[in-house]
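Hi V.,

Quick status before I head out on leave. The structure for the redesign project is tokenized and pasted below; the design run finished overnight.
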């Protein structure tokens, strides 16, 4: 019997049950992650400080600082980061700021404790700088150092013009007060530079990292506003300055509570990210803006005072010259790097597509050339399962094997997991190398915790120089596509027939998109029958393509092309919309739900669940009226991790929509995924039904019984597909399978025919096992 999984067999009739989707508000609140609750509470505290002034601000900031420190300590204990030192420095920084503010509040203008508060202010800066410095444990390479230096000099230029120069020459500070102010503002500038250092070097994009960066930005903003105000003779305690500090406390505390904090610090690679055109444009904008700022500052000083001192001229000039020099040097490094990357792949050391094209253009063969294009089957799933580092290691290993199996051939990595081999040989020689390569790439690869098996698809094009180089590359790619489409782990040699198939493929993809626009698709429905009673328990929606002349295009022909081309996404959206419309026409009267297939590409879209719920709501349907079918292969290979699938599917199940695994037993059959994912129904693959079940073959019977027992033990229900004979239906019922579909009961038909079946008083399909009795939903 299934209860919360949405199918009930309480009556012994295997009927599809109802899922209420009720959510306990208190339980839902407790499930809200700690970092979100901290953000919510801290946000209220930040808002509370806005109308406050003077010492009243500390009444809010002090508890907030204590809460932030507590959050960091708890985060360290809960998540145990590999590199906790930066967090401890951050705790010490907040503690110093808290104690200094308390001393300032207690002093109340007497001056007796001012020295201690000032000392803590000076301590706070170095502690925060040490914490920021420790976020990156590995040193910078030359390019990363230059990037940081460019931004640092630009920031120093603005700092000089807006803060330091007024502090020195406005006359508001003298003696030790001036020295103290310069030391404190220099510390804030150092924090800004170290923040930029982490941002430019790090490739980490965790939620904790984002919160930390935002918190650091709040500290920098507060420091800038405070010192601009003080340079003009103010107190530096404006609303913006206070908000910057309070927001930083909230953001850093939330970052510590987020689970990803365990991997935020100390894991930054030494090699910085590549310089994008956007970043270079920002560098140019930086030098232009700093130059304009320097000119404005000097002009204003001359207008107000009639003269400028040597430092007022020399400092901006030196900073501008330094920025310009570093920018030119950085551009030269980019040019050099681009030149290398054009012809050499940095990961594997192999050539690139540019090099391959050059070799094909300039090296027309005298005795024949063979071009092999190679793709690693299943690499994407491995990369998603084990991470990009494991994927990179595997690509390097594949490159090593290619070198060993191809001898003196030229090797290139074209993109992702696609490689090319260019060798001087005829078609027979190319085939021998391809066979060695296929065997070499097919041996197990080491991964964390074990090893994996991958195969390869290889497209071979022999070239005698009679066609141009561009055509050779395209035709080799056609052969590679044919090898992939045939299931991989094989070699396909290009010929004219392949070219014709490729043209037909291209035309069919274009026709698919046109057919969707012209309304040539329609939905057929096949009943799912309750075996003990013969009543229709549900239906399955099946897409059909009918051309204007009335001919049917087989789903086996166009569905795979739609998957490969990406057309399955708009087609799938249309299917869901049409099914909900049709379903509204019969569900209110008969209560019969409908299952609809969803592709892997649809599941990857994070907005998929939202769209499904919107369509169900627009049709006026309850969630229990719809069942989403996903193949087990899609469940395992379509998402980057299990959490992505669970988030999508659970959001549907919370509204009563049930989840079915289609074709179960034909793919990976991952029991771990069955345990993790919110699944309600298993649809047993038709190969088990159409095998030797009629003759009572012990092996087939054993497999079916194992699937039924597995489903029962997991609280799931099983639907047998492709039931074509009465004997198959009888044996399935005897084994304990209660639900089935297939030609034995009813062929897929338009929605009008389904209405006729459902309006039958007995609601029986042809050739059922049991009696019509009292079965119902």
């Amino acid at each position: 019997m299934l209860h919360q999984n949405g199918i009930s067999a309480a009556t012994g009739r295997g009927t599809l049950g109802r899922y209420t989707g009720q959510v306990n508000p208190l339980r839902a609140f407790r499930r809200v992650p700690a970092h979100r609750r901290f953000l919510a509470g801290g946000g209220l505290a930040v808002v509370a400080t806005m109308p406050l002034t003077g010492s009243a601000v500390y009444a809010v900031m002090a508890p907030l600082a204590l809460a932030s420190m507590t959050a960091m300590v708890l985060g360290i204990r809960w998540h145990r980061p590999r590199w906790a030192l930066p967090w401890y420095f951050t705790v010490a920084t907040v503690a110093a700021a808290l104690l200094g503010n308390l001393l300032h509040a207690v002093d109340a203008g007497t001056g007796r404790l001012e020295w201690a508060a000032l000392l803590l202010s000076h301590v706070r800066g170095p502690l925060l700088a040490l914490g920021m410095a420790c976020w990156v444990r590995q040193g910078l390479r030359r390019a990363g150092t230059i990037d940081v230096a460019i931004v640092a000099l630009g920031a120093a230029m603005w700092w000089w013009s807006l803060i330091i120069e007024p502090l020195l020459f406005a006359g508001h500070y003298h003696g030790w007060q001036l020295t103290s102010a310069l030391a404190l503002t220099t510390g804030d500038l150092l924090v800004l530079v170290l923040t930029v250092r982490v941002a430019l070097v790090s490739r980490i994009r965790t939620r904790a990292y984002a919160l930390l960066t935002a918190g650091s930005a709040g500290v920098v903003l507060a420091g800038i506003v405070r010192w601009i105000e003080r340079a003009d003779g103010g107190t530096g305690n404006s609303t913006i300055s206070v908000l910057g500090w309070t927001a930083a406390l909230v953001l850093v505390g939330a970052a510590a509570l987020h689970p990803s904090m365990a991997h935020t610090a100390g894991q930054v690679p030494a090699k910085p990210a590549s310089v994008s055109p956007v970043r270079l444009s920002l560098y140019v904008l930086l030098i232009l803006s700093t130059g304009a700022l320097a000119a404005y500052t000097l002009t204003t000083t001359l207008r107000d005072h009639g003269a400028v001192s040597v430092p007022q001229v020399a400092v901006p000039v030196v900073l501008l010259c330094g920025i310009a020099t570093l920018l030119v040097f950085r551009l030269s490094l980019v040019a050099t790097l681009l030149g290398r990357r054009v012809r050499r792949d940095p990961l594997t050391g192999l050539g690139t597509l540019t090099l391959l094209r050059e070799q094909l253009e300039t090296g027309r063969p005298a005795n024949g050339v063979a071009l092999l294009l190679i793709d690693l089957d299943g690499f994407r799933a491995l990369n998603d399962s084990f991470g990009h580092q494991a994927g990179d290691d595997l690509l390097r290993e594949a490159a090593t094997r290619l070198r060993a199996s191809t001898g003196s051939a030229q090797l290139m990595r074209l993109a992702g997991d696609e490689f090319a081999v260019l060798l001087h040989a005829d078609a027979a020689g190319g085939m021998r190398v391809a066979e060695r390569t296929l065997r070499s790439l097919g041996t197990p690869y080491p991964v964390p915790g074990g090893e994996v098996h991958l195969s390869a698809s290889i497209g071979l094009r022999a070239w005698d120089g009679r066609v141009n180089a561009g055509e050779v590359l395209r035709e080799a790619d056609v052969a590679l596509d044919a090898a992939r489409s045939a299931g991989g782990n094989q070699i396909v040699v290009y010929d004219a027939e392949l070219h014709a198939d490729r043209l037909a493929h291209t035309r069919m993809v274009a026709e698919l998109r046109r057919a969707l626009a012209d309304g040539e698709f329609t939905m057929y429905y096949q009943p799912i029958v309750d075996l003990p009673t013969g009543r229709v328990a549900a239906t399955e929606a099946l897409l059909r393509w009918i051309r204007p002349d009335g001919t049917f295009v087989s789903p086996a022909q166009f569905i795979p092309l739609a998957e490969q081309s990406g057309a399955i996404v708009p087609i799938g959206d249309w299917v869901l919309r049409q099914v909900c419309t049709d379903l509204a026409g019969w569900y209110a009267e008969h209560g019969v739900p409908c299952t609809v297939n969803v592709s892997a590409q649809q599941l990857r879209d994070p907005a998929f669940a939202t769209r499904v719920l919107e369509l169900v709501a627009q049709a006026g349907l309850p969630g229990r009226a719809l069942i989403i079918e996903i193949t087990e292969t899609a469940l395992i290979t379509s998402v980057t991790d299990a959490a992505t699938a669970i988030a999508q599917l659970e959001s549907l199940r919370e509204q009563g929509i049930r989840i079915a695994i289609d074709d179960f037993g034909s793919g990976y059959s991952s029991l771990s995924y069955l345990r993790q994912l919110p699944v309600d129904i298993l649809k047993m693959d038709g190969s088990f039904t159409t095998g030797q079940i009629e003759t009572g073959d012990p092996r087939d019977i054993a497999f079916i019984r194992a699937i039924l027992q597995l489903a029962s033990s997991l609280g799931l229900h099983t639907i047998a597909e492709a039931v074509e004979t009465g004997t198959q239906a009888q044996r399935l019922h005897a084994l304990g399978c209660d639900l089935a579909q297939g030609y034995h009961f009813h062929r897929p038909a338009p929605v009008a025919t389904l209405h006729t079946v459902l309006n039958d008083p007995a609601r029986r399909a042809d050739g059922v096992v049991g009696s019509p009795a009292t079965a119902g939903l």
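Above is the designed sequence. The longest strand covers residues 536-546.

G. will cover questions while I'm gone.

Best,
W.
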